[in-house]
Design brief:
single chain, mainly beta, Immunoglobulin-like, 9-stranded antiparallel sheet, 4-stranded mixed sheet, 41% strand, elongated
Amino acid sequence: MAELQKINDYLAGDVNLNDIDYIVVKAGDANFFQVTGGAHFFGVDGDNNSIYNLWLDSDGKLVSEDANGHKDVVAYIDNNKLQVVYGRHTDPYNGLSQPVTVTLDGTEDKGKSLLNAFKGYADTWFNNLFVPRVKEISVEVAVVAPDVKVTSLTGLPASLTLKVGDNGSLSATVVPDNATNKDVEYTVSGTGITLTGNNYEATGEGTPTIVATAKGGDNVTVSIPVTITAA
């Protein structure tokens, strides 16, 4: 889930564009974007190093183009040059669609450069293109929290000894408790037992093995050997 942070707070640390879900600009109490209540959203493409406008469709969903096919590329990096575009390519505001090119130093953090350029864009666009001018510009970055991996499973028996007809259930606990994906999958190899989710039933004699796998971990499994004898 994305968590909003003030852009200055985010820029104070390490910047990874692929961690950013979207950016929202709030312009004081202005009400020029009726649907979004004074906020306008911008998407981030970390792989292509660009920030672009997000429009709202008729259902209120964010889309990358408006009904007229406009897609505003606000800032992007091309051949180690930062391109900042004010306004739409196809429908410029007051001639402000001319790109500003800044050559980046090879050691410069491109993500920070891009976000700093966007801050300048937001101030220019909102203050110069809308009357009356807004008094306060707030830019927030929605950062997607990294997945918390499952490291182990607890609460499972070391083995099971059953008789034909016995049934029961397994209940694994994932560690850590704040793991992003807590789902556990149960599978069986061998004969003599059937599984439905985490519920088992001994159907015949045998020595099968039940395996519990954490879906939110990297190869986190627990094997439970089972011995089934006649009733």
